[in-house]
Amino acid sequence: MRVELQVNGRRAEVDVEPRCTLLDCLRDTLGLEGTHAGCEHGVCGACTILVDGEPARSCLMLAVQADGHELTTIEGLSLGPGELSVLQDAFCETHGLQCGYCTPGMILAAHALLARTPQPTRADIVEAISGNLCRCTGYGQIVEAIALAAERLRSANIKTGET
Amino acid sequence: MKPVAFDYVRPTNVSEACALLAGDDGARIIAGGQTLIPLLAMRLARPTRLVDIARIADLAFVRDEGEDVRIGAVTRQSVAERDPIVATKLPLLAKALPWVGHKATRHRGTVGGSIANADPAGEIPLVAVTLQATITVQDAAGSTELAAGAFYLGPMITALPEGAIVTHIRFPVWQEGRTGAGFHEVSARRSDFAFVASAAQVALDADGRCAALGVGIGGASDTPVRLDAVSEALVGSRLEETEVREAVVAATANLETVDDLHASATYRKRVAATLARRAILDARDEALGGRHAR
Prior knowledge:
Helix content of chain A: 25-40%
CATH architecture of the largest domain in chain A: Roll
Distance between the termini of chain B: 52 Å
Strand content of chain B: 25-35%
CATH superfamily of the largest domain in chain A: Beta-grasp domain
Order of helices and strands of chain B: EHEHEEEHHHHHHEEHEEEEEEEHHH
Oligomer: heterodimer
Largest sheet of chain A: 5 strands, mixed
Number of domains of chain B: 3
């Protein structure tokens, strides 16, 4: 089936089988391997992307269901090659990642939170990433990273959402 | 690709969807897919065709009809969660929705999908049974209404006729002046399947006495259960903690609870009584605080 996807602001026309998940389509067809395949049945959150700005699990969507939606993957957050967004930078600074497997999903879940809630409480942050498993950090530094990014974005002169 | 190969069709209206279902025994409905896609990935579901109803615009709405609020089947859970009508008219549903899965699954999962899926631990079916909602289903012959209490027959088993689709759910709006809701759940980790959940809605009269009460238990048995005996025992009372405790313990004594590797039947029964008490008392306090006063 031919499907027209909007990924990171670009149009991509792909030919996929109906049974192909959006996750497999992003990784194998479009080469966007920043979206990680973890459990592939909706438990771990590693494959989290943004669908119309809201976090969703790309392993729990078929590519054919995604046409017409705005999709954002981790590749769509950085401002340019070699650059990091404020949120990504905060993850590096607070050691919010170790092996990095959960990180793209964590960052997109946090990105959606900060776009809606510029001044999140600790509880808001914990709730926002509660669907994303991390087996390295113990979550402490991830929460710290998101709080730091929120603070920087508030004090910086940039529009919310452009994290 | 993990699922078996299947066809994918996207009908534009309900009649077309019903015709597609009727024409193929192996066809299944997909809306949000948050339960079906994992089943596909594990090949526990092997449909020949998926009929995607998620974009049928007639099925996505939240409508205030005075006596009740109607929610279209493909209304996404995250949309219902943010809906002002749900927040003001259906305090119990508003309280339960944040417990449904995770933010990321609520963004795709639908209200009707959760109703039709009939997971014994599902929060939306529990609210539907507790509030005595009505589920409207449609097939090629026409549409029928089913009481939520009669809709759930067993784990993932409903009275939905073959070839029929849930089109919308009618949740009654309580007209009493002071209404409050309470929701409690115990699970292994945040947003995991509930071992036990309890939902309660309470309305108080001008004198502070209980005018109406609905309380239900989910996750503990094969289907969500409404504890009618508690309503009978407590309407007219002041919902003092002792009488609430006695009523829920008596009503849950004969509850048939599930025994599995997560929790024993005895544990579930004890937790059911405790959570029901907490849910009722929270609902009472909220009604007293007048947060949902109209």
